[in-house]
């Protein structure tokens, strides 16, 4: 990962970069390297420092250094005498974005299955924008063990279910695109309306693409047959599982980062597989814990479609042909 400046964010929901998405970085920071006297002088204007030196149980911040490379959120490591902390901030977006991340990380953390960074605090910045403080995880040399990743991800899906149906406690973001998580009792309705339908609406608004909007809506209204004979439970999903959000800790255990969590059909977790590098050992281990359901292969591209549409919205028309190809294939298959 190349460091492009003092404050650099992570890029999520794309094969371009490492983990999250965000705004262009600030030119400089008043805190590049300092000792406690300077920290104490800034406490009143800096809720990040204030939390680290109180609830974070540190007495001194010895260094602040940028982490990663990207363009939407600033990401920094805070070294202290109580250990390191990972801090993301965004100068343009309010705390609601990080609220969704905190709720998602907590939900995954509480399953005690796959490792995720423990979130500590989020809030508003006095000068505008927001921040989140979380556990700093030392990454190992290898990205992850594929079979262990598959097994632990399946254990998380099996452990965390929702009695409210499909959705999440708050709306959140997939990359920087809003992700609507209104609780819905029926999965087909939820996926058609809040996943495919919402992305198609944004494409029409942003690009005026009536062709993909019309064909996509026709597909969304007719996906029911793809789920016949399938028992669908609302499992906790990471929601944005691509290679940049998958790594391992220094002990070689899989770690997943920067979620866009919601409760949905477990197969939807593989929607970024075209950008995640999942291999045979991953799927074999996963299906040992969560058995493969009838028609899995027929539904795979349907779940890829959501993320191709989102990439069209985020990065432009280079993703249009892939999305439209999937839509047209399904329209022919379903004869609608």
UniProtKB/TrEMBL annotation:
Subcellular location: Plastid, Chloroplast
Signal peptide extent: none
GO cellular component: chloroplast
Keywords: ATP-binding, Chloroplast, Kinase, Nucleotide-binding, Plastid, Transferase
Catalytic activity, reaction form: N(6)-(D-erythrulosyl)-L-lysyl-[protein] + ATP = N(6)-(3-O-phospho-D-erythrulosyl)-L-lysyl-[protein] + ADP + H(+); N(6)-D-ribulosyl-L-lysyl-[protein] + ATP = N(6)-(3-O-phospho-D-ribulosyl)-L-lysyl-[protein] + ADP + H(+)
Coiled coil: none
A GO molecular-function descriptor: protein-ribulosamine 3-kinase activity
EC number, as in UniProt: 2.7.1.172
InterPro entries linked: Fructo-/Ketosamine-3-kinase, Kinase-like_dom_sf
Function: Initiates a process leading to the deglycation of proteins. Phosphorylates low-molecular-mass and protein-bound erythrulosamines and ribulosamines, but not fructosamines or psicosamines, on the third carbon of the sugar moiety. Protein-bound erythrulosamine 3-phosphates and ribulosamine 3-phosphates are unstable and decompose under physiological conditions.
The family this protein is said to belong to: Belongs to the fructosamine kinase family.
Name this protein carries in UniProt: Protein-ribulosamine 3-kinase, chloroplastic
Organism whose genome encodes this protein: Oldenlandia corymbosa var. corymbosa
